[in-house]
TrEMBL record:
<dbReference type="InterPro" id="IPR029063">
    <property type="entry name" value="SAM-dependent_MTases_sf"/>
</dbReference>
<dbReference type="GO" id="GO:0032259">
    <property type="term" value="P:methylation"/>
</dbReference>
<dbReference type="InterPro" id="IPR013216">
    <property type="entry name" value="Methyltransf_11"/>
</dbReference>
<protein>
    <submittedName>
        <fullName>Class I SAM-dependent methyltransferase</fullName>
    </submittedName>
</protein>
<keyword id="KW-0489">Methyltransferase</keyword>
<dbReference type="Pfam" id="PF08241">
    <property type="entry name" value="Methyltransf_11"/>
</dbReference>
<keyword id="KW-0808">Transferase</keyword>
<feature type="domain" description="Methyltransferase type 11">
    <location>
        <begin position="48"/>
        <end position="140"/>
    </location>
</feature>
<dbReference type="GO" id="GO:0008168">
    <property type="term" value="F:methyltransferase activity"/>
</dbReference>
Length: 262
């Protein structure tokens, strides 16, 4: 992804690690973990975590026995991830991975696609994942929903402000989200546009999973996530609904999976 000054400033606030460890962001984290644990090859396998940030997912993957290399363009992220036991971390670009051909068992792109606003760059990043994964290996990519900004800003109350409404409505119209105040710039997918990008990268057969469903928009979401019994029920409910086509766009994030041809 483009390491613009604005994007560097956004991630140097060091909020991404905490976003997935607290509050309703935990739903995205636990659902990503749930899906990946069902589809990853058995440990020990080689997992390349591209755009892996500070290692939020690399941490549990290594604890599960995987050999994890993390690549991220942000120096702060690489520095933080390198401190994790068992994680190798270095700087790199998703569109030009510093990794040999067919050298890993799975590639995770849990952030890059929503910072690449040009379709050609997103396809290039997916094609790079195909290049470095072994035959039969897994490619998993996260995308933000085209409608997430509208949903989130209404949930937060910021939709009341014209500045925020313009950002949310622009994202819903063409997918590009750019918020000067926060510094976040990215791309939000219509769920039905993702299959073609995967196909153009050489991955025609995919599976799609809505991560949060509608539950991330519930006012008492934290109460459910704080209570182990209620949390288990919610996670089970979303697992049952995760691939219903009409519900994919309600999730804030979607995970798309494919396997390289043997």
């Amino acid at each position: 992804m483009e390491t613009t000054p604005e994007l560097l400033a956004y991630y140097e606030q060091d909020r991404e690690d905490g976003r997935l460890r607290a509050g309703r962001g935990r739903l995205e984290f636990w659902r990503t973990q749930d899906v990946l644990r069902r589809v990853l090859p058995p440990a020990p396998a080689d997992v390349l975590d591209v755009g892996g940030g500070t290692g939020v997912h690399a941490e549990w993957l290594t604890a599960d026995g995987y050999r994890v290399e993390l690549i991220d363009p942000m120096p702060l992220h690489v520095e933080r991830a390198a401190r994790l036991d068992g994680v190798t971390a270095r700087q790199g670009d998703a569109r030009q991975l510093p990794v040999p051909d067919e050298s890993v068992d799975a590639v995770l792109l849990l952030g890059p696609l929503y910072h690449l606003t040009d379709r050609a760059d997103r396809v290039r990043a997916l094609a790079e994942a195909v290049r470095v994964v072994r035959p039969g290996g897994l490619v998993a990519a996260a995308t933000i929903s085209r409608y997430a900004a509208v949903h989130d800003m209404i949930y937060q109350g910021s939709y009341l402000l014209e500045e925020y409404r313009e950002v949310a409505c622009s994202a819903a119209l063409d997918g590009v989200i750019s918020h000067v105040r926060s510094g976040f710039t990215g791309y939000c997918h219509d769920p039905d546009d993702v299959p073609a990008e995967f196909a153009d990268a050489g991955l025609p057969d995919i599976a799609r999973y809505g991560l949060q469903g509608p539950f991330w928009l519930y006012g008492d979401i934290d109460d459910w996530l704080d209570d182990p019994e209620r949390r288990a029920l919610m996670l089970d409910a979303q697992r049952r609904l995760e691939s219903v086509p009409s519900l994919l766009g309600v999730s804030g994030h979607m995970l798309t999976l494919a396997r390289k041809a043997p």
